[in-house]
Amino acid sequence: MPELFHVVTADEANARLQKLLTLLDHAEELPLHAALERVLFQDLHAPCDLPAFPRSTMDGFAVRAADTFGASEGLPAYLTLCGEVTMGRHADLRVGSGQAARVHTGGMLPPGSDAVVMVEHTQAVDVKMIEVVRPVAVGENMLPVGEDVRAGALLFPRGHRLRPQDLGGLAGVGLTTVPVVVRPRVALLATGDEVVSADTTPGPGQVRDINSYTLAALTRRVGGEPVLCGIAPDDKATLRRMAVAALATADVLVVSAGSSVSTRDMTAEIIASLGQPGILVHGVAIQPGKPTILAMADGRPVFGLPGNPVSAMAAFELFVAPTLRRLQGAGEALSAVTTARLARNIASKPGREDLVPVRLERRADQLWADPVFGKSNQIYTLVRADGIVRVPLDQSGLYADALVEVRLF
Questions:
Q1: What pLDDT does residue 9 have?
Q2: Phi, psi (5° rounding) for residue 363?
Q3: Which residues fall within 8 angstroms of residue 71, CB to CB, at 6 or more apart?
Q4: d(CA 193, CA 236)
Q5: What would you report as the CA-atom Rg of the chain, rounded to the nearest whole angstrom?
């Protein structure tokens, strides 16, 4: 494959791949404590009302709201105490006209009552009577049955990624296990004669394997299960054998290519041979990450990422991450973003999208984004950065002092 790429935009590249994806159809049942950030395999409905009984939201007195209408400091309403509702117990008393029952936050409201007067708005007359100095409306300071969620209501749709509050909500209705999509297995294959294991002292002309670790971490972040498949040499037969073996046990294959033109050409040739329809995109109008490859091999996505760590990470975030989300049936991620003022000019070329790492600094109550310039093989360019600023295709750069959107790492 020639070095002169037929580049497409990032959006077009993703569109070509996404229309060929099919959802993973394997599920597993997990306990709530193990389900954080997992994606639901099916819709979940509430098996019961929440709350299951009318509850007080304040310490105070359960009353009939009509008995407090018109109450004021100068003309309080006098109510007779009929008892107290014990926390965690059924209310075994009834509030009649002109009566009140002591209740506590979260406790059950007794039958006959329809509101709660805050204890701060009452005065004790004696052990059997209180005066109410402010009126309450029906339903005030209480939760009726099903106020939070009704039995049978849709709690979460298929594809929802479970957050901490979601797990609490499921526990509240008694759902202690959930069906989730099995994590997509992502085979990560590094290549290049110059690449050695991270625990090896590099010889002359060699570099440690950075991509396997960064790509594995990115895979976990979007719900995938990384499978490190080692480092393939710049030998066509060996590379193809390792790629075939890696793809055979995974849902997705990611090859981080060597830096030379010959290696990149060989990687593209091997990816094209793994299955149909083969390569969909070879070359994307982004910087860094231009030589990225997107392919499908008999229903499984295959990616050829540049060997330079910054390029590989940028391409992963743009193409592999959304693919893993879609395989799980999850929607687009709501990336953490912030707005900052650009500290320096960023030059760019129209016709490509530039992804520029920035470091965030607060100066006199203003957030500033300072570009961290560096070559795409310098991993510490990203280590020193807090996020990415994207320069659109149709712009020749961004000027200092402009307000920019920063996508946080």
A1: 95
A2: -130, 115
A3: 77, 132, 133, 134, 135
A4: 12
A5: 31
Question: 211 CB contacts (<8 Å, ≥6 apart)?
Answer: 188, 190, 256, 305, 307, 309, 312
Question: Could you tell me how far CA 357 lies from the centroid of its own chain?
Answer: 21
DSSP annotation of 316: I
Write phi, then psi, for 347 (nearest 5 degrees).
Answer: -85, 150
Q: Is 118 exposed, middle or buried (0-12, 13-18, 19+ CB in 10 A)?
A: middle
DSSP per residue, 110-179? PTT--EEEEGGGEEEEETTEEEE-S---TTTTEE-TTSSB-TT-EEE-TTPBP-HHHHHHHHHTT--EEE
The pLDDT tens digits of the residues spanning 259-316 come to: 445 555 689 999 999 999 999 999 999 999 999 999 999 999 999 999 899 999 999 9
Closest CA to 46 of 144, 128, 130, 152: 152
Contact 273, 263 (CB under 8 A): no
> Which residues, in sequence order, are bridge partners of residue 338?
406
d(CA 76, CA 212): 73
**How far from chain centre, in Å, is Cα 206?**
37
pLDDT at residue 380, rounded to an integer: 76
Full strand arrangement of the beta sheet holding 277-282: 225-232, 185-191, 252-256, 300-305, 293-297, 277-282
> Which residues pair with residue 359 across a beta bridge?
370
Q: Per the omega criterion (within 30 degrees of 0), is the bond before 51 cis? A: yes
Q: How far apart are CA 363 and CA 357, in angstroms?
A: 19
Q: Match 């997509």 to its residue by tokens.
A: 184
Compute φ and ψ for 3, nearest 5 degrees.
Answer: -70, -25
Provide the 10 A C-beta neighbour count for residue 210.
20
Enter the tokens of residue 123. Answer: 């005065």
pLDDT < 50 stretches in the chain: 1-3, 259-260
Tell the residue number behind the tokens 């080692």, with chain if given: 230
Going by C-beta distance under 8 Å and a sequence separation of 6 or more, which residues neighbour residue 88?
none
CB 405 within 8 A of CB 389: yes
Contacts of 39 by beta carbon, 8 Å cutoff, 6+ apart: 159, 160, 161, 162, 180, 181, 223, 328, 329, 330
Nearest to 142 by CA among 169, 117, 179, 170: 117
Distance, in Å, from the CA atom of 264 to the CA atom of 54, rounded to the nearest integer, reads 67
